[in-house]
Write a structure and sequence with these properties.
single chain, alpha/beta, Spore Coat Polysaccharide Biosynthesis Protein SpsA, Chain A, 6 helices, globular
């Protein structure tokens, strides 16, 4: 099987402004890597042979952008995530392929998600962490505090596998796929979930960026 992926990296990162005006994919998350560098390298490490960057801008050169396994797909008008995937589809060789948000960092073997996509689609699920301290009470008395607990619910972690047929049938030519299209795919019994219990880092705010940099500094 050939492992192929589309990285959705066309977001403007408005929640990071005015702290930084650097495009989110090009933010440094460590001394060596940008966010986009990390995600491309992660896929190549797991034997992906075709990585497509679905974006609305050209990116500066880096060691990965000259790699023959990495190719851009630049949209000229804003297409949304669904339109971006459909526009990149002609660059995909096989029937099934990985789709991921550039700002969702996970630590697992992405090839495992292919195994779940037996009905045409699969989604990675994670348990979110409450950004606040949880208060434990008995009647009106506070008995304890729990610092930023992990919630007992499963949410979309921004990583998927889709078949070509599912994308062509359900994805919009313009607009996002995460809401209406995913509901239709689920109702049609095409969608399976893979529960992921490792660390899940999302980059939406400067606070997130600082936390991610601290994480990779510890690894280095």
């Amino acid at each position: 099987m050939e492992y192929e992926a589309i990285i959705l990296c066309g977001g403007e990162g408005w929640r990071l402004k005015p702290d930084t005006w650097i495009p989110k994919p090009l933010l440094k998350i460590s001394k060596q890597e940008t966010l986009l560098d990390r995600q491309i390298g992660w896929l190549l490490k797991h034997e992906f042979t075709n990585v497509i960057l679905a974006a609305n801008r050209s990116f500066p050169e880096s060691s990965f952008f000259t790699n023959p396994k990495v190719q851009p797909c630049i949209e000229r008008t804003k297409l949304g995530t669904g339109g971006a995937v459909k526009r990149a589809l002609p660059l995909i060789n096989g029937d099934k392929f990985y789709v991921m948000n550039v700002d969702d960092i996970v630590f697992y073997d992405p090839r495992k998600l292919y195994e779940q996509a037996t009905a045409g689609a699969a989604i990675l699920l994670a348990q979110p962490q409450l950004p606040f301290g949880k208060v434990i009470m008995q009647e009106n008395w506070i008995t304890d505090f729990e610092h930023r607990p992990v919630l007992d619910v499963w949410v979309n972690a921004g990583h998927y596998v889709f078949s070509r047929e599912v994308v062509m049938k359900y994805f919009p030519d313009e607009g996002d796929f995460e809401q209406k299209a995913m509901q239709e795919i689920a109702k049609a019994k095409h969608l399976k979930g893979l529960k992921y219990q490792g660390e899940w880092l999302t980059l939406n705010t400067m606070k997130d960026l600082i936390r991610i940099r601290e994480h990779f500094e510890k690894i280095e």
